[in-house]
Design brief:
The protein has 282 residues and is mainly beta. It has two helices and ten strands.
Length: 282
């Protein structure tokens, strides 16, 4: 695992005794080969070698016919004659680096016989800024803004073999504005406004499509991959008036808030990236 974090902050007056600002930035870069979604293990069936040979179907049937099937399923014939052509294409499908989509076991015997480890990447950039403005002796305006963008390349996104990665992108935006007005030494009014927006997108990065192996689904669109895109947002608007005597007593308050949620299902294929999963560079 390798992680780098860097950043800095800077602030000061823009106009003496009137306008002030402060800003900060932090970046994170992580290369992780030990995360839970960067390692996998599986128990694979003993698929024979030399899958391109003409007798592969027969050898596959001979290797598989001794295994029990699920209730209601058809037992594989020992000569492989009833093996579905789609299954044969899946077993011969290859990742961009030339490895089989369904790999062969690495060890013999029962139990887990295949393990793999692929590094993932995580990147985040976040920025925060504050702006304070003394409008008049009785008025003070404060504006705060924060944003962050992050993305993660996940080698094993639910799959137990290489070739089915995912990319997850997230964005966060927050704004807070407040204005304080002093009517008198005994009465203060505060106006507040806030807004936040969070957007997330998950993209599947596999290169093999259903049509590549002869599998057709009803209403299957051209790109055949369904990422889930979510956009979340909320805002708040409020005002309060305080009367100062022996203690602060709110004599009038009000607040309004709302939120928006949108989910968009969109067809899109993620270009593969060689540093995360076996693939050619996009």
């Amino acid at each position: 695992m390798r992680q780098n974090q860097f950043g800095g902050s800077f602030g000061g007056p823009i106009k003496k005794d009137k306008l002030f600002f402060f800003g900060s930035y932090q970046g994170t870069r992580q290369f992780n080969g030990v995360a839970g979604q960067g390692t996998t293990s599986a128990t694979l069936y003993p698929v024979p070698d030399n899958r391109d040979a003409a007798d592969f179907r027969a050898r596959l049937g001979a290797a598989m016919c001794g295994f029990p099937t699920r209730p209601g399923s058809i037992q594989i014939a020992c000569d492989g004659s009833n093996i579905n052509p789609v299954a044969l294409k899946l077993l011969n499908a290859k990742n961009p680096d030339g490895t089989f989509l369904v790999p062969s076991p690495q060890t013999q015997g029962s139990g887990v016989n295949f393990t793999a480890q692929l590094p993932g990447r995580y990147q985040e950039d976040q920025f925060n800024t504050n702006l304070d403005f003394n409008l008049r002796p009785a008025d003070h305006l404060s504006v705060k803004y924060f944003f962050s963008n992050s993305n993660a390349d996940v080698p094993f996104a639910g799959a137990t073999v290489p070739g089915f990665p995912a990319r997850r992108d997230f964005a966060n935006r927050n704004v807070a504005i407040s204005e304080n007005h002093i009517f008198s030494p005994q009465m203060i009014n505060q106006f507040r406004f806030g807004f936040s927006r969070m957007a997330g997108q998950g993209l599947a990065g596999g290169k093999i499509t259903d049509q590549d192996v002869g599998l057709n689904r009803f209403s299957d669109p051209p790109e055949r991959i369904l990422p889930n895109i979510q956009v979340l947002g909320a805002f708040q608007l409020g005002n309060s008036v305080h009367l100062l005597r022996d203690r602060a007593v709110p004599i009038g308050t009000g607040a309004w808030s709302g939120s928006v949620l949108a989910e968009v299902w969109r067809q899109r294929r993620l270009p593969a990236r060689g540093h995360v999963w076996p693939a050619t560079s996009a």
